[in-house]
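ok trying again, last paste got cut off:
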Amino acid sequence: GMCVTSVRPASFFSNVLHSVNRLVSEGVYSSPVSPTARVNWVSPEDIAAVSVSALTSTALFPIALKVLDVLGPEENTVCGQELLQLLEKNPNLQQRNQHSPPLIYQELPPPPVEDYAGLFSFLNEGGFAAHRPLLPLVNKPGASFGHFLQGLALE
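nice, full thing came through this time. structure:
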């Protein structure tokens, strides 16, 4: 038989980009994730590093390991209000906010596709962070979601 490892990352940093235009123009961040749900965010680079380690190191990843959940550092687990607070530190949004109302988090209805809606139900229940402990998978700290948001080019 063939050994298979499923790499399952938490929310990609880049998922924030779906809401950038409305965020800049209207000050609204929208998502099917509840504003009270604590979601972990992970960088694509960290996902790649863990994947490479899983493929190349049997010492770190035994052959029997079938599912590999990839999460960012603990400080990358934030609720909607914390996400807005991190976004407000972005210099482009700080300029916008000088003359605009505060940013708003808008919860969207779940998508009509059942499997996709199931993903948002999973995230609303705490996602991987609520179901599995974070394993130290690579010998470096994960990227900071806050730093990513502060450096995001918003125009």
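cool. The mean pLDDT is 81. The two ends are 51 Å apart (CA to CA).
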